[in-house]
Amino acid sequence: MLPGMLRTLPVALLILSAGCGPAKRSAGDADVVEKVKVAMLCMQRASWEQGTAMQGLIEIGDTLSVVNMAHEAVLRQKPDGRLSMVGSDWNIGDPASNGPGVLFAYRVTGDEKYKNAAEAQYRYFFKPSSRTGKGFIRHNTTAMQIWSDNAFMAFPFLAMMGDYDEALRQIEGMRESLWDKDARLFRHIWDEEKRKFDDKSHWGGGNGWNAAGMAQVIGALPKEREADRRKVIGYVKELIDGCLPHQRADGFFYDKIDEPNFVETNLGQMLAYAIYKGVHSGWLDKSYLKAADKMRNAAYSKIDKFGLIQGASSSPSFDHPGTSTECQAFFLMMEGARRKLADSK
Q1: d(Cα 163, Cα 203) in Å, to the nearest integer?
Q2: 325 — phi, psi (to 5°)?
Q3: Could you give the domains of the chain?
Q4: From CA 249, how far away is CA 230, in angstroms rounded?
Q5: CA-to-CA dists, residue 245 to 138, 241, 278, 285, angstroms
Q6: Helix, strand, coil content of the chain in percent (nearest 5)
Q7: pLDDT tens-place string over residues 224-261
Q8: Region of poorest pLDDT, from 5-19, 125-139, 177-191
Q9: What is the pLDDT of residue 88?
Q10: Is residue 4 packed enough to be buried (19+ CB in 10 Å), middle (13-18) or exposed (0-12)?
Q11: What is the DSSP letter of 256?
């Protein structure tokens, strides 16, 4: 048996389900959320998009959609354990973003196929081919590279499977590989074989993945791991504090945070999600809410009449403004986290 799997799985499932029921909302906001959700579900999705979409649906309490999407993620699981493998055979880290949704479906249905699928995805990460020489999870099969995306794709799933040590080890590996301590921001891609950055930019999406992913890991750590929890909280605060000086007057950020390439929508949603989650859980000060609300208002201004959120780092190339599944999903995550905070007051 691999470390932490079956012994702590019920704890992980309770973490996933906490507060997942429909939150109180105004009629106007509910209509917007529904429109954004429908637009998201109409999008074609690769593995990370399916997984991120499920996590958005978990946050707003749409159990039916999560279970149906988890069913599809398991239906399209590779024999090696990777979930939701549609058009992305080179992915290593991304398929694990489906793990939280699959664990949620197991809690709801009790169907062993979901537990077995989650365990197979977990085991995949311990194959030597999934790691760099230092033991950090690679992003893809084509290069020995660390991408900032893995902070959300893989690390929360490891923690939800009860392998807290491995989740924390991977966070430290991400910081060792990509953290720019002077800028207080993450760079995007490190190539372990070439020993240089393949993309040294402070990409907004990558920093958002880290803020959101570490916020989820904090939520998954049990009380007896308080020292580790405090350490990760410090990392998230440091990252948010590194991002906020670059927030524009209109509430947005540039796609490359400290380079004026194009104005981008989703980083603000990702940071707002982490902030609302942190304030609600008591590990982030309420003073951050002003910036988060500004990000949220900016995001609302980008929703078109079809429910598509414009101005995202656009799929599939993520090098120009447009739309993406993850932008739709993080709107849902942001709204779900904000409503839980509002309902707790």
Answers
A1: 29
A2: -60, -40
A3: 5-179+200-344 (1.50.10.10)
A4: 32
A5: 31, 7, 19, 17
A6: 60, 10, 30
A7: 999 999 999 999 999 999 999 999 999 999 999 999 99
A8: 5-19
A9: 73
A10: buried
A11: E
CB 291, CB 306: distance < 8 Å: no
How many Cβ atoms from other residues are within 10 Å of residue 128's Cβ? 7
Burial class for 7, CB neighbours closer than 10 Å (0-12, 13-18, 19+): exposed
> CA geometry: angle at 50 spanning 237 and 119, to 5°?
85
Q: Is the distance from CB of 41 to CB of 308 less than 8 angstroms?
A: no
Q: Name the nearest CA neighbour of 338 among 294, 277, 297.
A: 277
Report d(CA 266, CA 244) in Å as an integer: 14
Q: What is the pLDDT of residues 138-175, one digit of tens each?
A: 999 999 999 999 999 999 999 999 999 999 999 999 99
Instruction: Report how far residue 232's alpha carbon sits from residue 288's, in angstroms, rounded to the nearest whole number.
Output: 17
C-alpha to C-alpha distance for 6 and 137, rounded to whole angstroms: 22
Token digits for 313? Answer: 């780092």
Distance CA 337, CA 316 (A): 27
Token couple for 90: 């080179």
- Count of C-beta atoms within a 10 Å radius of residue 50: 26
177-226 pLDDT per residue, tens: 999 999 999 999 999 999 999 999 999 999 999 999 999 999 999 999 99
Dist CA 248 CA 225 (whole Å): 37
